[in-house]
Design a protein that fits this description.
The protein is an alpha/beta fold. The protein has 2 domains: 32-313, Alpha-Beta Barrel (TIM Barrel), CATH 3.20.20.80; 320-401, Macroglobulin (MG2) domain (Immunoglobulin-like, Sandwich). The protein has helices spanning 2-21, 52-62, 84-90, 95-104, 127-135, 150-153, 157-171, 193-198, 216-236, 265-276, 293-301, 305-313; strands at residues 36-41, 66-73, 76-77, 108-115, 142-147, 176-180, 202-203, 206-207, 249-251, 281-285, 320-321, 332-339, 343-350, 356-365, 368-375, 382-390, 393-401. Strands 1, 2, 3, 4, 5, 6, 7, 8, 9 and 10 form a 10-stranded mixed beta sheet that branches. The protein has a 4-stranded antiparallel beta sheet with strand order 14-13-16-17.
């Protein structure tokens, strides 16, 4: 019995490793509503001397499609009376008006909160209450969780992380939630990775090479290897929701210690992230600290125009069948596909023996990006294949149902 269990467990791990190595999990980026280039702003009210138009003009000139701004520190909510963000935003009609202005210029807005695991400033709120207050601001596109050293050592870190994300998801089940934390999993093994990633949409590791100091290539390799090693362990342990697409945060300026960002670093970081690792996007820390013109120049030139156009227009130029997400999954997963023109479409699911088990689409479908859910509640664990025929286009992919 033990020998059989060991064999099955090895098979599960082998399947998971195969999926990871073929970018099955990394291609989960296809369902993200933020891609390409973003940037973080710590104190929006000080950026460009508080001139919102100047900030937006700079972001548009660089081709940034989304911005992450600090809106809270633990239980201290910045968009409340007496705080600098709130006082500044009042001059523009309030924070919802600020967000609307970003949106009018094609830029999504995510708020971020640094959390300690316990209320830090004595403002009378829990950290999850503040997160939900942030997300209640009209138009805000999502939340970024900045969790770091405090969660390496907090005695109640697992339960605290779980309660925090559960509260957010109970109130905002569909919003973007990003985890911004360590890039080196092995060095932070006590961090509650699974609990935070379970409730997140995307993983944004802080891939700061110059602060090490090392190079963008070395740091990305180390980060990617760590998550490729640990993610199958988390998934095989029953936490398939912890497998999230990666969008690394790059270092854009000197942090006050170690080395500065060298010319060519930003170009290398972006090129490797897009072309080698196939990540859906990147961001830089942090807007108000950037003083080198070459940082802006390299970030402006980074990422392909096609990637940005796809995000902005949502109009596909070619047929495509995307990897399902999540993968592995239990019991349901989403399959997306792209049609450049209206087409007769069939999308079917087959088991490992080639037997058809489900028809998801069968009929005329308009041009655009489409998604359909495959509910495998009545099926057993194993490898399945899904196949699309759309006009002249035929393609198939595999997915894993893991009970």
């Amino acid at each position: 019995m033990n020998r059989l269990w060991t064999h099955k467990n090895r098979m599960r791990r082998w399947i998971l490793a195969l999926i990871l190595s073929s970018t099955g999990l990394l291609r989960a980026q296809d369902t993200l509503s933020i891609q390409a280039k973003g940037i973080w702003i710590w104190e929006l009210w000080t950026a460009n001397s508080g001139n919102l138009s100047a900030v937006i003009d700079q972001l548009k000139s660089v081709g940034v499609g989304w911005v992450i701004i600090k809106m809270a520190d633990s239980d201290s909510y910045y968009n409340s009376s007496g705080h600098s963000l709130y006082n500044w935003a009042v001059g523009y009609g309030g924070m919802d008006s600020v967000i609307s202005t970003f949106h009018q210029n094609g830029i999504k807005v995510i708020g971020y909160q640094y959390i300690y695991g316990i209320p830090h400033w004595g403002d009378g709120f829990s950290e999850s209450q503040v997160a939900n207050m942030m997300l209640s601001v009209k138009g805000l596109d999502g939340l970024a969780i900045d969790a770091e050293i405090e969660f390496d050592t907090l005695a109640t870190r697992v339960a605290t992380a779980r309660a925090y994300v559960d509260s957010i998801r109970a109130h905002y089940p569909a919003t973007i939630v990003a985890l911004a934390s360590w890039a080196r999993v092995a060095s932070h093994s006590t961090f509650p990775w699974v609990q935070f990633l379970d409730g997140s949409t995307v993983n944004m590791p802080q891939t700061y090479w110059a602060a090490r100091p090392t190079t963008p290539s070395t740091e990305l390799t180390r980060m990617s290897s760590d998550f490729a090693t640990y993610t199958p362990m988390w998934v095989s342990g029953g936490d398939s929701a912890a497998a999230k697409p990666i969008m690394p945060i790059g270092q854009a300026e000197y942090f006050g210690y170690s080395n500065d960002v060298a010319q060519g670093d930003i170009a290398s970081f972006c090129s490797l992230s897009q072309s080698t690792y196939k990540y859906p996007g990147v961001s830089l820390w942090e807007y108000t600290e950037i003083t080198h013109s070459y940082v802006w120049d390299e970030y402006t030139a980074a990422w392909t125009a096609a990637a940005s156009v796809l995000v902005q227009s949502g109009l596909p130029e070619t047929f495509d069948l995307r990897q399902n997400y999540p993968n592995p999954f239990n019991p349901s997963t989403v399959i997306s596909y792209e049609l450049p023109v209206s087409s007769e479409v069939t999308l079917r699911v087959y088991d490992l023996l080639g037997r058809e088990v489900a028809t998801l689409v069968d009929g005329k479908v308009d041009a655009g990006i489409h998604a359909v859910t495959f509910d495998a509640t009545r099926f057993g664990s194993g490898i399945y294949f899904y196949r699309i025929t759309a006009g002249p286009f035929v393609d198939s992919r595999k997915m894993v149902l893991l009970r």
